[in-house]
UniProtKB/TrEMBL annotation:
It comes from the Bacteria. SUPFAM superfamilies: Cytochromes. One of its GO terms (molecular function) is electron transfer activity. Heme c binds at residues 141, 144-145. Binds 1 heme group per subunit. The lineage of its organism: Bacteria, Pseudomonadati, Pseudomonadota, Betaproteobacteria, Burkholderiales. This is Cytochrome c. Keywords: Electron transport, Heme, Iron, Metal-binding, Signal, Transport. One of its GO terms (cellular component) is periplasmic space. Residues 1-24 form the signal peptide. InterPro entries: Cyt_c/b562 (IPR010980), Cyt_c_II (IPR002321), Cyt_c_prime (IPR012127), Cyt_c_prime_subgr (IPR015984).
Length: 152
């Protein structure tokens, strides 16, 4: 657990540096697409790890929940810089991401705000607050997918 905390701390400290140079770090549009898809995949994985707790299928382990939520919070900042020019039309991302940049940015901010609330709920140790906050995160994911992700 201590090792995970150190990794997360380093990620949180370094994330702004990575994000500020994110466009420069992608040699090809395909690299940016893989990056954002990986970030979303990891977000999905860590949200899925919360599901058995939220459904009452396993006992509430506050430390495990906080660890997953900390990863979710870090990951929630990563994919957005990989929606740069040249990455349109090569994935399930709809063209509206670029034609409605303000709307996409608002959806991103809503998602990130819901993740902040999820973190607060995890810190509270209150399972009902955690369920509500996780529902809000899921709703923000769905809203963004409905507007900005093509159905496969």
């Amino acid at each position: 657990m201590k090792k995970l905390s150190l990794v997360l701390a380093a990620t949180v400290v370094c994330a702004p540096l990575w994000m500020s140079s994110a466009q420069a770090q992608f040699a090809k549009p395909e690299d940016a697409i893989k990056y954002r898809q990986s970030a979303f995949s990891m977000l999905s994985t860590h949200m899925s790890r919360l599901q058995p707790v939220l459904k009452g299928q396993v006992a509430f382990d506050a430390a495990a929940v906080k660890a997953n939520v900390a990863v979710i919070q870090t990951l929630s900042t990563l994919p957005w810089s990989a929606f740069g020019a040249g990455t349109q039309g090569t994935s399930s991302a709809k063209p509206e991401i670029w034609s409605d940049a303000a709307g996409f940015k608002a959806a991103q901010q809503k998602f990130q705000a819901s993740v902040v609330q999820l973190s607060a709920a995890a810190d509270s140790g209150d399972l009902s607050k955690l369920r509500s906050a996780a529902g809000d995160v899921g709703a923000s994911c769905k809203a963004c997918h409905d507007s900005y992700r093509a159905k496969k």
